[in-house]
Design the sequence.
């Protein structure tokens, strides 16, 4: 039979009759079956979550596939100075900042507005139907969504057909660098607004119904109820989500952008991730790794700062 | 990260995990609603209807194009219904061997990855849920830190290459098999199971494996459903790993097949010209639309039934432990 869980007496005794090592060994032995159960999953996790960290070294080397990671010569910070010496990386950085700005200004408020509108609808079955429909694109890959959008916004697509009805000239939406931001925002709202609203709908469900009743009795109009009851009710959620959005500033949708971009729109669409991928495709691993590491470190820093702020405002919501 | 925020805020009186807003304000008997209220109601329904229609329309458009005759696809229009319906494009795509191969590869990959993920994740999460497990704090930190910092895809690619997994199906299954988020989700769920239950089984001499599989997991169906469904969906939709690791066309997955035939051809130079597998009954438009629809059909069909389980996941577990 397996020994039972440690009691107070066994813990106290082990403190006297054994050193740290012996206690460790005892604990390992006592948990030997659990450890055996733990190891297969942990091995896979550790291999693929921490194994790659060794490869980061190539950011400081001139990596060649033939010599391998260990055999390639060190070059110090040359790959990083290389990033900033040409316009390409700075361009990708600038574009990433533009998409991040669009995320914060346009894409962040959209689901909040949807949640508020949904909560104002009296027909609950209708709310359910709209919600179910609005989640759908979230479950479909950007490869497929982009395939659909290329036709929908295409020369013979529905968007141009609608423009035609209003007497407006048709556009080649997907093949103009300036239009890429329009496509980005529209497609991101299409794919993400319903799913993004879930968290705010849950927050609105937590607002005390008596507050609405009281506002009604006091003669508050519907907009006043939204302004003075709903919005304050979800304010904590909104501020936390906002901080998380800031913390993940650099994580603009790679799947979306990579599948929607064409050689013609690359100037507007090229972000850090696509920059890195392009260098991988041309076997320039070291330069790509330097860009990738720059992005990871900056990202970690932002998350760290973001979490510190969250911890001060709402300790319950912080990550650590 | 959103998971963390969601749980604590979520009050879910409906119990379906989605929450449909606060209870409907019941108009009092005898109290007449003003004209302004009626206008607002109509406006709300109108806005939501437009949103729902706008969300579905691109899918409908694509479906219609896939079922339209060659001539119709070359006409600009709203394409709400096919004017001369034909299954020629579907037939052409389904009879090309490429898509069936890709379909099979994706099914195999999805099934294998989901099974492996569920077993390994549960076996890793259960020991971590035991308060006395050695090095628990360090291990939990390793989980959390992996969510915050990674080297990106270059070092992962080099690792997969050095392990000799390039062009192997394992390269699509193993790297994502045990993710920190899933382990944390399961660990938190397991911790909420009453310890007396597990202690009683131990006293009766049950092995840890047996406790996990006969006591803990049957009580953990909600978390298993969430992790299993999200893993299956992620594998069905995955394309980037295949782009990096798979060259062999026989091992290519469905999403890459779609990307190669649809997105890469959606190029002004190619569109309208013959892209290879064109016949007189279909056009580039209808063929790529049919390929897209065929790849997406399983999700669209299953979606209404599974949707609530997915939504439940966002409100289920907290990241912190």
Sequence:
């Amino acid at each position: 039979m397996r020994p039972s869980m440690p009691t107070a007496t066994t813990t106290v005794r082990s403190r006297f009759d054994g050193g740290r090592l012996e206690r460790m060994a005892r604990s390992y032995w006592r948990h030997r079956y659990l450890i055996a159960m733990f190891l297969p999953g942990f091995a896979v996790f550790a291999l693929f979550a921490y194994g790659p960290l060794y490869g980061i070294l190539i950011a400081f080397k001139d990596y060649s596939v033939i010599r391998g990671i260990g055999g390639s010569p060190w070059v110090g910070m040359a790959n990083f100075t290389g990033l900033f010496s040409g316009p390409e990386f700075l361009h990708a950085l600038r574009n990433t900042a533009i998409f991040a700005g669009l995320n914060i200004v346009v894409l962040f408020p959209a689901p909040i507005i949807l949640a508020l509108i949904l909560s104002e609808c009296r027909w609950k079955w209708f709310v359910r139907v709209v919600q179910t429909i609005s989640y759908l694109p979230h479950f479909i890959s950007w490869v497929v969504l982009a395939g659909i959008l290329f036709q929908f916004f295409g020369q013979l697509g529905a968007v141009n057909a609608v423009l035609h009805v209003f007497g407006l000239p048709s556009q080649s939406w997907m093949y103009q660098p300036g239009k890429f931001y329009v496509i980005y925002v529209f497609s991101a709202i299409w794919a993400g607004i319903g799913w993004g609203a879930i968290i705010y709908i849950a927050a609105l469900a937590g607002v005390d119904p008596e507050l609405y009743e009281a506002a009604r009795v006091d003669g508050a109009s519907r907009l006043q109820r939204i302004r003075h009851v709903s919005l304050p009710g979800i304010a904590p959620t909104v501020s936390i989500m906002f901080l998380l959005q800031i913390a993940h500033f650099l994580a603009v949708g790679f799947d979306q952008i990579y599948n929607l971009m064409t050689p013609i729109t690359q100037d507007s669409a090229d972000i850090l991730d696509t920059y890195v991928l392009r260098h991988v495709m041309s076997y320039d691993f070291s330069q790509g790794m330097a860009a990738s590491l720059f992005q990871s470190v900056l990202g970690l820093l932002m998350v760290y700062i973001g979490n510190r702020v969250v911890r001060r405002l709402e300790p319950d919501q912080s990550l650590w | 990260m959103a998971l963390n925020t969601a749980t604590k805020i979520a009050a879910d009186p409906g119990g379906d995990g989605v929450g449909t807003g606060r209870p409907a304000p019941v108009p009092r008997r005898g109290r007449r609603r003003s004209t302004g209220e009626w206008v607002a109601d109509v406006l709300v329904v109108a806005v939501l209807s437009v949103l729902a229609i706008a969300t579905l329309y691109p899918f409908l458009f694509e479906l219609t194009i896939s079922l339209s005759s060659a001539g119709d696809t070359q006409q600009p229009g709203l394409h709400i219904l096919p004017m001369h319906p034909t299954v020629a494009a579907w037939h052409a795509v389904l009879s090309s061997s490429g898509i069936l191969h890709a379909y099979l590869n994706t099914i195999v990959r999805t099934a294998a990855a989901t099974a492996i993920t569920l077993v390994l994740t549960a076996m890793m999460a259960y020991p971590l849920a035991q308060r006395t497990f050695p090095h628990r704090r360090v291990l939990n930190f390793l989980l959390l830190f992996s969510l915050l910092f990674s080297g990106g895809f270059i070092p992962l690619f080099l690792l997969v290459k050095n392990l000799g997994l390039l062009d192997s199906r394992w390269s699509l299954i193993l790297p994502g098999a045990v993710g920190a988020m899933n382990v944390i989700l399961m660990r938190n769920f397991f911790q909420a199971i009453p310890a007396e239950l597990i202690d009683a089984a131990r006293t009766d001499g049950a092995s840890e494996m047996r406790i996990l599989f006969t006591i803990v997991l049957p009580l953990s169906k909600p978390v298993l459903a969430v992790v299993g469904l999200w893993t299956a969906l992620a594998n069905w939709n995955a394309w980037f790993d295949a782009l990096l690791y798979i060259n062999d066309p026989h091992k290519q997955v469905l999403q890459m097949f779609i990307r190669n035939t649809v997105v890469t051809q959606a190029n002004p130079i190619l569109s309208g010209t013959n892209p290879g597998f064109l016949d007189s009954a279909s056009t580039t438009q209808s063929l790529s639309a049919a390929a897209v629809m065929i790849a997406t059909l399983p999700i669209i069909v299953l979606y209404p039934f599974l949707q609530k389980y997915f939504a439940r996941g966002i409100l289920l577990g907290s990241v912190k432990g």
About this structure: The domain at 86-282 of chain A is CATH 1.10.3720.10 (MetI-like fold). Residues 285-313 of chain A form the longest helix (29 residues).
